[in-house]
Amino acid sequence: MSDFLYVFFTLLLMATFFVYFRIARKYNIVDLPNYRTMHEGATIRGGGVVIFIAMALYSVFMYNPGYYFLAGLLVIGVTGFLDDLLDLPNRIRFPLQLLSVVLMIWEAGLGNVPLLWLIAAVIVITGTLNAFNFMDGINGITAGYAMVTVGTLLYINNTGQSFIYNGFLLFFILTLLIFAFFNFRRKAVCFAGDVGSLSIAFIIVFLILKLISVTGHWVYVLFLTLYGIDTIFTIIQRLFRKENIFRAHRLHFFQVVIKKTGMPHLMMTAWYMALQLAVNFVVIEIAEFSWERQIIFSLIMLGAISLFYIYVKSKMMKREDVVQ
After folding, report:
1. Contact 199, 230 (CB under 8 A)
2. Distance between CA 53 and CA 49 in Å, rounded?
3. What is the pTM of this model?
4. In a domain, 109, yes or no
5. Is residue 108 part of a domain?
6. What is the b/e burial string over 16-45, where b = at least 16 CB atoms within 10 angstroms of the residue's CB?
7. Domain that holds residue 40
């Protein structure tokens, strides 16, 4: 894609965001602060709909990774946007998410795996999409974390194993950068909303599955290490506390640390980005090892990060009870 087209799309995306802001203000599509949130003042929600629309249109007119991918993206994006507006019940939201995941797996070339593995993959990936949504709790974290992951995939696509059209990755990064312009700041102009976090997660997981399908290296799932560890341990913690894991809370690692230390949101986001980037470099290196050594090094790395997570979070939470 030429430099002129990148400039054109940048201006078009910026204009689209401003149009959505006017619509959101007119119809009061905003998030108001409450005791479960960490922002101040009314903030436009659902800004990620621009990312969803941009990537869907790019897939139609510029480069289509596949019709199953496009169908899955449309299902997850529309579901997320309706959830932002109407708060869809689980009996509607989850079946649609499962459908989008099945379409994703099929497009990634992993639809011929044994049935039990396929069922497990659908469940795990659906959980991963929702983990992205749950982790979207402070300014910049969704766009920042996604840019680290997609940037790593772009690096692999150019220096190691080409697995998808380069322009698709570059355009995705462009949309994330423009969204970050409005979200990666002390007082965010807009939040991604379910439509944004779920669409971003859908594309990222698809890209990782595509890379795995081409290379056969499952170790690339560790590109989502920090989100995975934070989500899994938070769910375990909430189950021990006999809480409803589907209800909003403030028990994620970043929420606890910010509450206890007063660390600025953007600094915490930067830490997540830096640590995941470091993990990604390790993953790229161990992907060239034998299968046995990949497992050993992966377990060592996951164990070390998990111990650090448990130690810091337990120390923080001993100071006083965290608001639920």
Report:
1. no
2. 6
3. 0.93
4. yes
5. yes
6. bbeebbeebeeeebebeeeeebbbeeebbb
7. 3-317
Instruction: Please count the other Cβ atoms lying within 10 Å of the Cβ belonging to residue 164.
Output: 17
CA 189 to each of CA 16, 18, 285: distance values in angstroms, whole numbers, following the listed order = 14, 10, 38
Nearest to 300 by CA among 284, 315, 282, 287: 282
Residues 286, 170 contacting (CB under 8 angstroms)? no
The total number of structural domains in the chain stands at 1
CA atoms within 13 A on the CB side of 243: 15
Beta bridge partners of 31: 43
CA distance 207 to 201: 10
What tokens were used for 135? 């982790």
Decide if 324 is inside a domain: no
Q: Any idea which residue has 């529309």 for tokens?
A: 78
Residue entry with tokens 């797996």: 105
Q: Is 105:209 a contact under the CB 8 Å cutoff?
A: yes
CA distance 202 to 44: 22
pLDDT for 214-254, tens place per residue? 999 999 999 999 999 999 999 999 999 888 887 778 899 99
CB neighbours of residue 176 within 10 Å:
26
CB within 8 Å of 5: residues ≥ 6 apart: none
Asked if residue 276 is part of any domain, the answer here is: yes
